Amino acid sequence: MSDVLRSHGHRRVPLPPAEDTAAPHAPSHSPGTPHPGRSPTPPGGNGSPKKRDPFFDNAKYLAIVLVACGHAWQPLISDSRLAEAAYMFVYAFHMPAFIVVSGYFSRSFDMRADRLQRLITGVAVPYVIFEIAYTYFKRYADPDPGYPISLLDPWYLTWFLIALFIWRLTTPLWKVVRWPVPLALAIAVLASVSPDIGDDLDLQRVLQFLPFFVVGLVLKPEHFQLMRRREVRLLAIPVLAAGLVCAYWAAPRMKVSWLYHRDSVQELGYAAWTGPVMTLALFGCSMALTIAFLAWVPRREMWFTALGAGTLYGYLLHGFLAKGSRFWDWYDQEWLYTPWGAAVLTLAAAVIVTVLCTKPVQWMFRWAMEPKMAWAFRRDAAELGRGRGARATPRAGEAAGEKRDGGKAAERG
């Protein structure tokens, strides 16, 4: 962890080292998903974890609010160029920002047993639970009761969980290759021109979003310190403004599906050569907007900082309302398509996802998001060995002490 820095007369608080736990995003202290902001126990410390860095919790909360707002705006984009521009602008960076932060806090992941257990209980198990729950919800709300349960075909928001599971497992690979980001970009380009990949495990999204995760893996605390500099924050203003202008220009000219990264260019109806061009162009735009967004995330404790620990709850639970609003025709009201109607939708989405990130909601759904499942795993043999060694050491010391005392007594005698 870098020392405290000073820039332009302001005291800089150092960022925590990366820990092994991913989310977009993540429950308050989930055993498998990342918890950007909570530092691990320091070596040789007293066992108490370090204080969470508010920057990452603030970033996660603001990003999840943008996710909810984007979902609320989606039905409006066919009737309003302004709504479509705002939607495209937000979609250009909200998930990349989540994924970059998740990658940053995956840097210390390896195949150690306890970390694999946390990955299973904090990512894989919630994926199974919510994939099944979303399937039954669709059967109930949609006239198609025959929609099958398929853990190989993520529906709606669950794609992020399976993607996070796969990315996390590949972390050791990215640690040993010489040029991880260019390699990840090459994989994303190849995926964009490979329609035969299919829909299993949403691999198109997994591979096309992969470069953002790898960027997070190679980032260091000093890179986030650079974003704190005053000149970076000032530069972020025209970058964000340019993003809005470009989104307004692109709204009637570009398919929104480009920003979902879930289809090959052939499936979108374009020539294969557009795959490398659009993949690299969108990656550059998304990274620029992500940096600009992170540059303006507050570094101090805010009223919403604590909510950043529950963003995975807000992410998965708000999906039922987002999809329900379509199934039950909540958008049939004409006033929603007016400017003030869009403002009401934005406020409602922000309030709802905020409530879903609170402690009471976390307490109610912790069984699904953060299951303990100690019964499902064997105790690590090495851990048991360390425990036996620790218990044996005091007795050995006592025996040695008794031997020394006995020898001294014999000498005195």
TrEMBL record:
Residues 1-51, 386-413 are annotated as: Disordered. Residues 33-43 have a biased composition (Pro residues). It comes from the Bacteria. Residues 390-399 have a biased composition (Low complexity). GO terms for molecular function: acyltransferase activity. Keywords: Acyltransferase, Membrane, Transferase, Transmembrane, Transmembrane helix. It holds the Pfam family Acyl_transf_3. Residues 400-413 have a biased composition (Basic and acidic residues). Residues 54-358 form the Acyltransferase domain. The chain crosses the membrane at residues 55-73, 85-106, 118-137, 149-167, 179-197, 203-220, 232-251, 271-296, 303-322, 337-357. This is Acyltransferase family protein. It comes from Streptomyces zingiberis.
